[in-house]
Amino acid sequence: MIHSENLTKEFGKIIAVEGLDLDVAEGEVFGFLGPNGAGKTTTVRMLTSLIGPTRGKASVAGFQVGQQDIEIRRRVGVLTETPGMYDNLSAEKNLQIYAKLYEVKDIKGQVDKYLKMLGLYERRLDAAGTFSKGMKQKLAIARTLLHEPRVLFLDEPTAGLDPEASHLVREFIEELKKEGRTIFLCTHNLDEADRLCDRIGVFKSRLLVVDTPAKLRASTFGRKVVFHLARTYDSLLTTVQKFEFVRDVKLVENKLLVTLDNPETQNPEIIRALVQSGAEIQFVGELRHSLEEVYLQLVKQE
Question: Over the stretch 232-282, which tens digit does the pLDDT of each residue have?
């Protein structure tokens, strides 16, 4: 649904985006993470045909960036980090204007549909300038969806929202995912990315890594299994270290921390060896690294 090859954007001597090779499948929620100034917004602007690339090529929904820009703009929905509204006009009127621009056939039906879905229908006649930041964000999301785009580019959709509004927006994104829409999500909220995204790309002018949240954790830190024991003794380290697949092992109080690549198949062998050596295993768990830890480690390495 989204494809790019060597996509590059330069502003004078500054390389904002360098050699981006990317594929996002239809129906996928793809998280695009990176620090401020990394080039995320520039990437979105190129993929939505708002600016042209310096070199390289890209396609969205089967249409070529730079060649079929109008077709791309008709088929994508874009939520910018700071969406502008006509503050003196009502919420309903704001949406009607954009529905006309997108040549929506049933303008009233579509406007009412999304005002109701986002809990704004009772305030539809109020000026957008009287809305809270959360309400304005929901109105911007409604505007993004009026023409039923199959591809959505969401730039910080929950930035500055209170927990209740953020929760509503996340639930809405999950509903859009169930409908099979492709979502390109730029966010600094790593917990949000962890919950919503099928895959994540960490970006800093160039793409550092792309994978599922679970595989990013495993490849960055390995998977740490915690064996809780009734008592510990140093010989347990030797028992576990003999396995070639063990990446690291530590004793911490009454816990044995073992770093593995594939605990599901490797745990049973370790458990058998520990029991044979006399260990009393109370229970086994996994120490999960947060996506934030993974992200910070990757950016730090870069």
Answer: 888 888 899 999 998 888 888 889 899 888 888 999 999 999 999 888 999
Can you read off the two tokens belonging to residue 112?
């009412």
Contacts 24+ apart (CB under 8 A), 126-132: 126/90, 126/91, 127/87, 127/88, 127/89, 127/90, 128/85, 128/86, 128/87, 128/88, 128/89, 128/90, 128/91, 128/94, 129/85, 129/87, 129/88, 131/91
Using alpha carbons, select from 182, 149, 142 the residue that is nearest to residue 27: 182
Residue among 228, 294, 281, 234 at smallest CA distance from 257: 228
Are 28 and 198 contacting, i.e. CB atoms less than 8 angstroms apart? yes
Quickly list H helices, 48-122: 69-75, 91-101, 107-117
What domains can you pick out in the chain, each with its CATH number? 2-211 (3.40.50.300), 218-289 (3.30.70.100)
